[in-house]
Predict the 3D structure of the following.
Amino acid sequence: MSGIRMSSVAVTAENCENGEPQAPEESHQGQANIPEIVEPEDDDAEEQEMLKYGAKHVMMLIVPVSLCMIIVIFAIRIITMYDQVSQPQVYLVYTPFNDQTKKTTGSPISDAVLNMLIVLGLVIFMTCVLVLLYKYRCYKVIEGWLFLSSLILLFMFTGLNLHEIVMRFNFAMDYITISLIVWNFGVMGIISVHWKGPLIVQQGYLLIISAMMALVFIKYLPEWTLWFILGGIAVYDLFAVLCPKGPLRILVETAEERNEPIFPSLIYSSTMMWTITMAEGDPVSSYNPLNSSSSSSAQGSPPARPQPEMEPEEQGVKLGLGDFIFYSVLVGKAATADDWNTVMACFVAILIGLCLTLLILAIVKKALPALPISIFVGIIFYVCTRWCIKPMCDQMALSQVYV
Amino acid sequence: MAVNWLPFIGCLSIAFGPSVTLFLCTAAKEAQGVILLITSAFFWLLSLLLTSLVWLAVVPLRKHLALTLVFSVLFQEALRVVFVLLVKKTDVALSRISRETTDLFHGPRYSVIAGLGYGVMSAMFMYVNVLSEASGPGTYYTPGSPSMPIFVSGALQASVMTGLHVCWGLLCSEGLEKRSWPLLASVTLSHMLVSCLTLMNEAGISPIYAIVCSYLILAVIGTFTFKRFGGNIKPFFKIQ
């Protein structure tokens, strides 16, 4: 893996300075042959390298993840459509068991579990289809699929959200202007995500796509189902990335073997994809793509299940768009509760989970699932804040007592 | 609606302006500063969680905020000590592996950041829910002050708490480093004192007294911290 390779280079450089060139492998394996003094130095170089890159890379992910969550929080607070439950609520077809259709099993929990199983099954199926397509090199099909889903998100949902914002602020705008804005916005997004564009524009569009996807989940999934799906996806993520036969792991490994990046529309990358490939001299171990995938199905439905992957190296860190989506879903759902304390608690909890994941990543140096730790810490703090901290804080705020 | 945005922005600036400035001057410059800030905010959250669990478990406590407050202060200071020790430990572990002294989490700047994380989180938890009402129609007053809306007094209180937490963070890490128990005790005691002052709000006394007292305490503690860390006031007055 490149993480290890990178540190070997540092080790070699260090040794040369001391006039004791050593093969990097020796310093790791043939410890007996090496003077004692050299040893700690090797570690030094390695550690320092790691720390410096580590902190910077954590930041490179914390900023976009925070931005995405902030977009979702404010969208929910501003666009009233997202936290209204008044009109007959519409749900995605994948969650047939809810109180709107008459097909309920009686308890919201068993409904939610059944819905979760359907959605999770769909996600697994879609992932497998994607992996198979990738394995048999049907790139065109995958491209088309991803293209279509980002097309729908960028045009349809931008239009929808813009419409709601205009209504919310009671601002008159004609359809021609709206369609012009949506067209420009969408076309630029498609070009920068699927073809090329400045890195920052590409990253911005990926964030917006994730945020819109998260809003769709929040709006169109029944409440209990949403929580179960969050938990289920986190567990599934764990298996998909870590199991030897997990679909995402296969995807990452295949991409690694072929030495090619995974589709840019599935992964947020802190550096430009093509620079990575060009800068690396060694073709085999150079690029570690990470896994991620998110398939999206048409209709912007619950498709995307993405995965996380990241690698702390000089080439930058990568995080699946799915991670962005589900982090934002958690925080966004907290925002619908009309209590800022819950939102802030979930926000901090998710960032802490992300830091922990990156810490583990720095230690094990292989693609890791980013959802489990963050989502579980997030859910724990959601529950605790909602039912323990909030009542206490309300009482304190009411009598203006500061602790 | 438009009118209410003005008090909203004003209160927002009073409450979080100083902390944002401090953040930009200290933590924002480098990655590990931001990570430290988030971690320390998380530790404050943990202390609040512990408090609320006690509050929930001991039923009689729910009627008496004064008792909850004592628990809360104790938990906060205990977790602050744990956090400082944890950071120190990480620092030692890091400097052991690398012979060059890493200034990763060392020095007063990081204590400021740690205190800031604590302060910002506490100010946000105590005040943001109140503030979010400020943009809406109507306003609130506490029984003690028919003239000063709760938004303004809360903002002042939130900002003074942030400042105090920064000082406490510095003093706490100094106290642990020098093994000076009086210093640690004074941190806890002054925290208790400031929090107890706000009990006056509950008792129906005008919040102005609590705020004025808190700012006086901040002035005293701030000066003390400044001196303790060898601060020199002259550069501030030097004409560039």
Notes: Residues 65-97 of chain B form the longest helix (33 residues). Chain B has a mean pLDDT of 86. Chain B has nine helices and no strands. Chain B touches chain A through 55 residues (CB under 8 Å).
